[in-house]
């Protein structure tokens, strides 16, 4: 009897904890499969994979992702060596110089990203102006500027990763290598670098992720280009639809798969190191092999994609549309009847008030109808002309234009 | 092949701190030479000077007559075995051993062959593919030696290589090291704070204290004819008695050590011979030189047994005798008790006495020595 509540409390706490952590993610993931035009779980309309398809055709987003990848790779290639060099320097200087150098190296992490972005922009612009560079040179290139801006603080991140590893390095190993006749370069390449390899890998991953998800600095330095985050941000501002949820689902799935495969690989390594590899159970060994796990995951994803590609939600969506139209017609009908009934007593204000809720809902519920032949009220505002050059117009590119009611925005492009 | 190593007044200073102070000696090619001294006396620093990791602040190091100043550790004919071995944990045993060949651009097949040869020398044949972490302490030790030998050095430098091993293994490795040295015929410069190690293995020993070399000589000379109070008290066990020289004749000095009667100590040669009558001095009597004797025998004095430590083959008696202890000063009155240690072989029939017994002990004049007062090794 006494055990019940005692056990209940931790369980409840855990449930709340995990709900808090993963609830938003779960809900977002679900919205990616609802055909409703606004990311929501209820009312549930139809199971659809259409948002993923829409994503695949969103050239702006794809271009942003492409830029983000280029920037990410560039940042990794520059920030990781700089971070390693900084960590090596710190490990070799005296304690007093070390303290002040450390402060200098770490400063970019403490400076707000916005400031780094702005100062990068201004610095290169001034530099370009000084040598009279054209606007199509590196000094005004969004991708270059973004790499330059991000490297300043991501190099400091990777330095931190390297510092923790290097503090466990036994410097007599380098001395031993030198004593055995190695040149300093050989000692570095054959002894220190292999020791640092795991840290280099994690610093690279960290740098790449930090670059991919950066917004504060990037939004200033991209200038006329766009990256994954800036495209997403403009989407949020100028009309949200579940294709954003689809992006999230893809990212979460990718992260989960990578983490699982990595973890399997790591466990295998530790077990191999301690000689605990299940040599006598080949099946178990195969199942636990990271490559096998990766294959399994790939197959799973392939299956889902195939199912999605072959899933046809148009019948259901048509049904939903018809239902809505019926509801709207009924409401319209009721309104008309009420107006007729009230004609003798002219209480004009009450009529709009009454109809307001219906009216307000209507456009929203109509929105997803975009996938079917567009109903009358959604002649999308003039298809947005390509952005007129400005640096921060990207938002204007949002389909449907800046002032389209949120729900309507995507309707123009959902046709497929 | 055999190159002499000359340290020509080598000094090393870290800021104001003098870690090595005017080391001056020559080590012959092919010799097993040890530096013996307590922890912190500058042994490692001196070894790092020889291997090239540390430039002396003064003095010169010559190997085979060649001045080593400005020659890096990778260009010297030395190989150092580090105190912590410094084996490369990410490489296999064979790769560790072949590392010196790899960095010299030797091809893979030759490397493998040489590694196998060396593995055989250290009795680890067939274990080349193991990881370093899979080896025992003694095996790691031998791999470190093999790796150093792969350098084909003229001089092998060993920095307390056995300090991490347990007693049994240490004694085994002493013999093994000595055997390897005989086999390869290299000069070994060995560093240790363990006098047992230094005395059993070395051709010659240099005893160090506070950066200074106190005495150089073979094991017997260092043990039997210490030249300073530090050496006398650091190498082996010793009883120190402070006192004054009364007179000297025929190579025998008469000393007043605060005992009921003066004692006579041989001072035919060495620093003791320079002690003038009236000078302060320290006399050293080894525990095994003290013997029970008749009260009227020469050099006899009374003592009381306080404790007995039984050790099987021999037993140690802790005796108390009046007089100033080793740390003598005006404060220590002449009657302050002091402790002496006496070691007896266990079959001494005539020494069948235990704690509390009042006995007479004495020593032969040539089994003790008199030295100018100096700093003693702390126990
Ligand atoms: N790089 C250094 N900087 C400052 N002091 C040092 C340095 N290396 C050694 N010392 C000092 O020199 C003294 C002798 O050290 P070391 O040669 O390692 O002694 P041992 O090997 O005999 O124990 C020690 O007091 C140590 O603190
Ligand atoms: Mg040392």
Largest interface: A-B, 18 and 26 residues
**Low-confidence segments of chain B:** 328-335
Q: Architecture of the domain at 54-239 in chain A, CATH level 2?
A: Orthogonal Bundle
Average pLDDT of chain B, rounded to a whole number, is 88
Order of SSEs of chain A, N→C? HHHHHHHHHHHHHHHH
Task: Say what oligomer this is.
Answer: heterodimer
Which architecture name of the largest domain in chain B does CATH use? 3-Layer(aba) Sandwich
Low-confidence stretches of chain A: 348-416
Share of helix among residues of chain B? 10-25%
CATH-assigned fold name of the domain at 54-239 in chain A: MetI-like fold
Structural class of chain B: alpha+beta
Number of helices of chain B: 8
Report how far the terminal alpha carbons of chain A are from each other. 61 Å
CATH fold topology of the largest domain in chain B: Rossmann fold
Keywords (chain A): Cell membrane, Membrane, Transmembrane, Transmembrane helix, Transport
Biased composition (Low complexity) (chain A): 341-373, 387-410
Domain ABC transmembrane type-1 (chain A): 65-262
Biased composition (Pro residues) (chain A): 374-386
Throw out a few tags for this protein:
heterodimer; A: 416 residues; mainly alpha; MetI-like fold; extended; disordered C terminus; B: 379 residues; alpha+beta; Rossmann fold; OB fold (Dihydrolipoamide Acetyltransferase, E2P); 2 domains; five-stranded antiparallel sheet; 8 helices; 20 strands; 22% helix; binds adenosine-5'-diphosphate; binds magnesium ion
Description:
Chain A: It is a multi-pass membrane protein. Chain A: Its main location: membrane. The complex is a heterodimer of chains A (416) and B (379). Helices cover 70% and strands 0% of the residues of chain A. Chain A is mainly alpha-helical and 416 residues long. Among the domains of chain A are: 10-45, no CATH class; 54-239, MetI-like (MetI-like fold), CATH 1.10.3720; 313-340 and 399-407, no CATH class. In chain A, helix 7 packs antiparallel against helix 8. Chain A is extended, with a radius of gyration of 29 Å. The N and C termini of chain A lie far apart (61 Å). Mean pLDDT of chain A is 78; it is low at 348-416. Chain B has two domains: 5-224, Rossmann fold; 229-325 and 337-371, OB fold (Dihydrolipoamide Acetyltransferase, E2P) (Beta Barrel), CATH 2.40.50.100. Chain B is built from eight helices and 20 strands. In chain B, helix 2 crosses helix 3 (108-121), helix 2 runs parallel beside helix 4 (137-150) and helix 3 (108-121) packs across helix 4 (137-150). Chain B starts with a strand and ends in an 8-residue tail after the last strand. Residues 328-335 of chain B have low confidence and may be disordered. Classes of the chains: A mainly alpha (416), B alpha+beta (379). Chain A binds chain B through residues 170, 172-173, 175-183, 186, 190-191, 194-195, 273, and chain B through 51-53, 72-74, 78-80, 82, 84, 86-88, 90, 99-100, 102-104, 131, 133, 147-148, 150-151. The structure holds adenosine-5'-diphosphate and magnesium ion. Adenosine-5'-diphosphate binds at residues 14, 17, 19, 37, 39-45 of chain B. Magnesium ion (MG) binds at residues 43-44, 83, 159-160 of chain B.
């Amino acid at each position: 009897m006494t055990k019940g509540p005692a056990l209940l409390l931790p369980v409840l706490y855990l449930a709340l904890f995990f709900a808090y952590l993963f609830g938003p993610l779960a809900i977002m993931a679900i919205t990616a499969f609802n055909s409703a035009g606004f990311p929501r779980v209820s009312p549930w309309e139809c199971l659809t994979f259409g948002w993923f398809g829409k994503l695949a055709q969103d050239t702006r987003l794809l271009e942003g992702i492409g830029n983000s990848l280029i920037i990410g790779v560039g940042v990794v290639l520059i920030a990781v060596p700089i971070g390693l060099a900084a960590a090596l320097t710190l490990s070799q200087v005296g304690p007093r110089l070390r303290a002040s150098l450390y402060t200098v190296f770490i400063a970019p992490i403490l400076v707000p990203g916005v400031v780094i972005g702005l100062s990068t922009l201004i610095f290169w612009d001034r530099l370009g102006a000084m040598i009279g560079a054209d606007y199509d040179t590196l000094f005004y290139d969004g991708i270059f500027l973004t790499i330059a801006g991000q490297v300043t603080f991501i190099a400091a991140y990777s330095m931190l990763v390297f510092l923790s590893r290097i503090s466990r390095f036994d410097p007599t190993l380098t001395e031993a290598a030198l004593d055995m006749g190695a040149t300093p370069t050989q000692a570095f390449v054959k002894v220190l670098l292999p020791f640092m390899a795991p840290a280099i890998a994690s610093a690279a991953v960290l740098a790449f992720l930090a670059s991919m998800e950066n917004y504060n600095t990037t939004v200033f330095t991209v200038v006329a280009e766009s990256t994954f985050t800036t495209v997403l941000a403009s989407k949020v501002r100028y009309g949200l639809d579940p294709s954003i949820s689809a992006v999230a689902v893809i990212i979460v799935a990718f992260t989960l798969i990578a983490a699982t495969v990595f973890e399997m690989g790591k466990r295998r390594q530790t077990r191999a190191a301690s000689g605990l590899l299940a040599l006598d159970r080949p099946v178990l060994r195969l199942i636990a092999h990271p490559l096998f796990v990766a294959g399994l995951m790939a197959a799973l994803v392939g299956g889902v994609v195939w199912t999605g590609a072959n899933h046809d939600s148009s019948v259901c969506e048509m049904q939903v549309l018809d239902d809505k139209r019926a509801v709207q017609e009924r409401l319209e009908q009721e309104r008309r009847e009420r107006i007729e009934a009230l004609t003798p007593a002219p209480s004009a204000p009450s009529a709009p008030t009454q109809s307001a809720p219906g009216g307000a809902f209507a456009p929203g519920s109509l929105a997803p109808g975009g996938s079917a032949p567009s109903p009358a009220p959604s002649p999308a505002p003039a298809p947005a002309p390509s952005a007129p050059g400005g640096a921060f117009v990207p938002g204007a590119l949002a389909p449907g234009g800046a002032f389209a009611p949120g729900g309507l925005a995507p309707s123009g492009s959902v046709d497929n | 092949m055999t190159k002499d190593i000359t340290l020509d007044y080598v000094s090393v200073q870290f800021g104001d701190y003098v870690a090595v102070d005017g080391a001056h000696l020559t080590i012959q090619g092919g010799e097993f030479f040890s530096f013996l001294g307590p922890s912190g006396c500058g042994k490692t620093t001196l070894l790092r000077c020889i291997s090239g990791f540390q430039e002396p602040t003064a003095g010169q190091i010559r190997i085979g007559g060649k001045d080593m100043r400005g020659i890096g550790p990778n260009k010297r004919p030395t190989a150092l075995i580090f105190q912590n071995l410094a084996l490369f944990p990410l490489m296999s045993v064979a790769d560790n051993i072949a590392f010196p060949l790899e960095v010299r651009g030797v091809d893979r097949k030759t490397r493998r062959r040489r590694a196998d040869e060396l593995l055989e020398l250290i009795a680890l044949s067939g274990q080349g593919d193991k990881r370093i972490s899979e080896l025992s302490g003694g095996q790691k030790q031998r791999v470190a030696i093999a790796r150093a030998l792969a350098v084909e050095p003229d001089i092998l430098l060993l920095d307390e290589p056995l300090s991490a091993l347990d007693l049994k293994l240490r004694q085994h490795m002493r013999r093994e090291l000595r055997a390897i040295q005989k086999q390869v015929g290299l000069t070994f410069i060995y560093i240790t704070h363990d006098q047992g190690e230094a005395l059993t293995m070395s051709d010659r020993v240099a005893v160090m204290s506070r950066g200074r070399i106190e005495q150089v000589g073979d094991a017997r000379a260092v043990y039997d004819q210490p030249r300073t109070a530090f050496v006398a008290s650091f190498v082996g066990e010793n009883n120190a008695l402070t006192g004054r020289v009364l007179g000297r004749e025929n190579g025998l000095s008469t000393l007043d050590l605060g005992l009921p009667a003066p004692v006579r100590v041989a001072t035919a040669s060495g620093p003791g011979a320079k002690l003038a009558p009236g000078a302060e001095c320290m006399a050293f009597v080894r525990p095994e030189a003290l013997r029970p004797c008749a009260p009227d025998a020469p050099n006899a004095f009374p003592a009381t047994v306080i404790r007995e430590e039984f050790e099987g083959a021999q037993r140690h008696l802790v005796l108390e005798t009046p007089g100033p202890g080793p740390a003598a000063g005006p404060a220590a009155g002449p009657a302050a008790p002091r402790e002496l240690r006496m070691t007896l072989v266990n079959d001494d029939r005539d020494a069948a006495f235990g704690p509390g017994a009042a006995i007479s002990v004495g020593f032969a004049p040539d089994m003790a020595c008199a030295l100018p007062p100096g700093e003693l090794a702390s126990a």
